[in-house]
Amino acid sequence: MVWSKTLLDGHDLLKRGISYEEFIARYDERQRARFNSAYENAHFSEEDLAWFRRLQEERGKPIPTLVVAENWCGDCIMCVAALRKLAEETGAFNLHFLYRDDPELQEAVERYFLTWGRKKIPVFVFLDEEGREVGRYASRPYSQEMAGLQGDNEKVKAAYQDGSYCGEMAAELKAALG
Description:
The chain is α+β, with helices and mostly antiparallel strands. It has helices at residues 11-16, 20-25, 29-41, 46-59, 74-90, 106-112, 142-149, 153-162, 165-177; strands spanning 63-69, 93-99, 123-127, 133-138.
């Protein structure tokens, strides 16, 4: 995907980020039920889990990860749930959530978090210890993004409903971090 500018110092944004628990607390009952369902249905292969565990072991600590999202977004519910599950099962990510529509973040969103020139979400930005971007994942898996652009919303929904998006998402996360 085509990004905005690379984030060269994400320390301030990491400090401004909220925890997973704070992010989920802002969900309404319907959103929380959708998120919980997405979380339960997110499954990664043993091979993928092993890859992320090795990454965490090599680093010695989780990867600081900015998660730019909104609780009303279906793609965010699905992809954030999957990333959270992957983080819990592997210890590979330390998640810091930012609300894309927060007025105090508009300049940073416009500068660093656009995808294809648009405010697509979610955006996961992986940082090194100096706060520099080392990789990024945005929106949803590529095949779903293409299906959505072609108007095939049934294909997008089907991958979310059966959990098959997790394998493609894992491959894209690995490519971003590899």
